[in-house]
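Box 3.1 A note on notation
Throughout this textbook, protein chains are presented in two layers. The first layer is the amino acid sequence; the second is a token string describing backbone geometry. Keep the layers aligned when reading.
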Amino acid sequence: QLVESGGGLVQPGGSLRVSCAASALTFSSYFVNWVRQAAGKEREGVASMYTGSGSAYYADSAKGRFTISQDNAKNTVYLQMNSLKSEDTALYYCVTSDYALDEYIYWGQGTQVTVS
């Protein structure tokens, strides 16, 4: 089970951190991805972390602005988003996979991020 939280309304240029809490089994040695879906647009994977090693991967749209991290004690993955733009407005999902930013398996319910 994946439970996202932390979404909200933020002004352009602002920051927001969203969280994904997972079960211990889910958290062990999977890729945990942040995938966003904006209205009228295709879904986009923005960041991924291999929980076994802590290796992080980013889409070009996220590089330099977003940071994915994990807290092993809390089985939680975070996405820190800085310098937010209106085009970052989307429903952000936490998703597991066997590959970074690809072949998604289990989805959370999503948390809305609105930049306006």
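Residues 6 and 18 are 4 Å apart (CA to CA). The two ends are 31 Å apart (CA to CA).
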